[in-house]
Amino acid sequence: MSEPQSPASAYDMTHGEDLPEKRTLAVMVDNEPGVLARVVGLFSARGYNIESLTVAEVDRSRHRSRITIVTNGTAHTLEQIESQLLRLVPVDKVVDITKSRRGLERELALVKVAGKGADRVEALRIAEIFRASVIDTTSESFVFEITGASEKIDQFLELMVPLGLVEVSRTGVLSIKRGKEAG
Fold this sequence. Notes:
The relative contact order is 0.18. The protein has helices spanning 35-46, 75-87, 117-129, 150-164; strands at 21-30, 50-59, 64-73, 91-96, 103-114, 133-137, 141-148, 165-170, 174-177. It is an alpha+beta fold and 183 residues long.
């Protein structure tokens, strides 16, 4: 005979069977020295992982930058990350692009593939299918430029491994919301 379960406490801090999920956050910040270090320090101090990080000034007249962070965690952890980011003084706004139906995410990669003969022809055929551009070529190698969702780039790289993948350089995820309003 099993023991009766006590009702859940209002103070219960466990969050059941929350599964980790990946999120893309667009963080608008004042463009001043040390801001990036403060944002990254928040993640580091609390043991949160950053999978991708891109930063650029987006409004010179107002000295504003956009930090795009791809991270993961349970729903509760991700809420905590967003809340703690908003508490940082130079942070003006945090937008969860992943949750938005209007969110767009893209990444750019440069991919070097070395090969000869049939492998070289196959690399060009796959690049055409994935709409990757050849931006450099020698008699023994190609450098492809590919943009798209991170998953698309991952698939392209997987197909290039047996054909002579040599090197990869990725930008990290960039994001924006569709429509006329700023995200």
